[in-house]
Amino acid sequence: MKQQVNGYVQEPMAAPQTEIEQEAVVQEDHQQINSTAHVGTSEAQEFSLAIKPKGPPLFKLSALYKSRLKTCIFLHFLLFFAMLAKLSEDILDRMDIFILELEELFIPKPMPFEYLWTGSIIFAIIGLRALSRNRLSSLNSYAAGTVVLGICPLLFAAIWFYSDVAEYAEKKQEAEIEKWQGIPVGLWWYGFITVAVQVHLYSLFFAFKLIKIWRVKLKRA
């Protein structure tokens, strides 16, 4: 209550705070400080995310696609050696070299598009050189050569043997078509085409990715 002393109104003095009340006030102050610091941290994180570049750097993407393209070219070489083994009898015959074991295999005579596809290995070598030296022009040549000598002969082979495969699917063993080791030659070819086309398509995909990245690097240089 207010007291009047010598004409002045005197306010009663506040009661001293207990230790429990003081601790409660201190804890409340700490909570306010922590909440303020948390807001500052979240704002800093949002700012760092805003300035952080999206996606991996170009050199990492380039290294990744180069590694995958090398794998595809390696598979291309394996397919090349398989085709070379198939053409070996005809090549040796042209050189007047006769090997009895090969003659007894009765390997079907090669078609012109088989030699065309075999020539695609030249562009595979160009592709490897392009990857080792980071040459954009050589990589463009590799992509073009893969389409012309890699994919086009395979598409022609698929069309050429389509009638044989369709007849075999309809008549099975009664089909009058060329066979090797009891299996229609068309089926052998379709198996090869399935694998080779996938290798070429993946090769082109990775090559075009690299071409795009290298063009960006040239613009920045």
From TrEMBL:
Cellular component aspect of the GO annotation: endoplasmic reticulum membrane
InterPro entries (alphabetical): Jagunal
Subcellular location: Endoplasmic reticulum membrane
Record has Ribonucleoprotein as a keyword: no
Membrane topology: Multi-pass membrane protein
Keywords, ordered alphabetically: Endoplasmic reticulum, Membrane, Transmembrane, Transmembrane helix
Domain of life: Eukaryota
Membrane-traversing stretches: 69-87, 115-132, 139-162, 187-211
One of the protein's GO biological processes: endoplasmic reticulum organization
Protein family according to the UniProt entry: Belongs to the jagunal family.
Protein name according to UniProt: Protein jagunal
Lineage, highest ranks first: Eukaryota, Metazoa, Ecdysozoa, Arthropoda, Chelicerata
Gene it is expressed from: jagn
